[in-house]
Amino acid sequence: GQQVQQSPASLVLQEGENAELQCNFSSTATQLQWFYQSPGGSLVSLLSNPSGTKHTGRLTSTTVTKERRSSLHISSSQTTDSGTYLCAIVDMGYKLTFGTGTSLLVDP
Amino acid sequence: NSKVIQTPRYLVKGQGQKAKMRCIPEKGHPVVFWYQQNKNNEFKFLINFQNQEVLQQIDMTEKRFSAECPSNSPCSLEIQSSEAGDSALYLCASSLGTAGNTLYFGEGSRLIVV
Predict the structure, then answer these.
(1) CA separation for the pair B76, B22 (Å, rounded)
(2) Residue B93 forms beta bridges with which residues?
(3) Which domains does chain A have, with CATH numbers?
(4) Which residues 6+ apart lie within 8 Å of B98 measured at CB?
(5) Phi and psi for A80 in degrees, rounded to 5?
(6) What pLDDT tens digit does each residue of chain B (114 aa) get?
């Protein structure tokens, strides 16, 4: 089945620094979503980006479908960005397969 | 703010007890998913529906879990006889369609089985 690997597993930044998160997946993806999960557990969809580059606010995602990889760039990080970032893939079926997550901590 | 509403936020059950969680999908979304996130933050797909029909489900769901999405009522996920290993965050998501559509998640129902 589909496997989704994320790197790094954890990341510590100083406020204002940029973050680059990576997602690699093993099979063709019809949809790719980046999520943010707060320490309380709520899962928020950040970007849907099955191919190409998309921007929203301080977030930029680039997905190279042929190479089965996606990145999420967070510019000018803030302490409120701390949490877990998850990449999830929909393959030729219906279900979403989640990656292992990147835990981000932004220090003031 | 999430437009997918899940209740209850927390529930505590003894082993062998039933545990029932509900989900109201975002208005107009015919596709509903249930996921289990365990203490290691691993996500497991359980079941999904399109309108009232089951699209896919895993073996575990067939045996001890029951789920439904009746028309004009909340969707529900019920564990017939809770086990300690069922302690997890149960997440419901809804979508406009299946492949290629964005999923929107609720805040989850955290089950603790004591």
Answers:
(1) 4
(2) B33, B105
(3) 4-107 (2.60.40.10)
(4) A90, A94, B31, B50, B55
(5) -75, -10
(6) 558 999 999 999 999 999 999 999 999 999 999 999 988 888 888 999 998 899 888 877 668 899 999 988 999 999 999 999 999 999 999 988 866 678 889 999 999 999
What distance in Å separates the CA atoms of residue A104 and residue A20, rounded to the nearest whole number? 10
Tell me, what CATH number does B48's domain have? 2.60.40.10
Out of A41, A95, A101, the one facing B56 most closely (by C-beta) is: A95
Among A33, A50, A92, the residue with its CB nearest the CB of B103 is A33
Residue B37 C-alpha, separation from nearest chain A C-alpha, in angstroms: 9
The domain containing residue B26 runs over which residues?
5-9+18-95
Which residues in chain A have their CB less than 8 angstroms from residue B56's CB?
A: 93-95
Q: Strand ranges (DSSP E) for chain B?
A: 5-7, 10-13, 19-24, 31-37, 43-50, 53-57, 65-68, 75-79, 88-95, 104-105, 109-113
Query: Both tokens of residue B86?
Result: 């069922």
∠ Cα A28 B61 A43 (to 5°)? 60
Q: Token pair of B13, please?
A: 């059950």
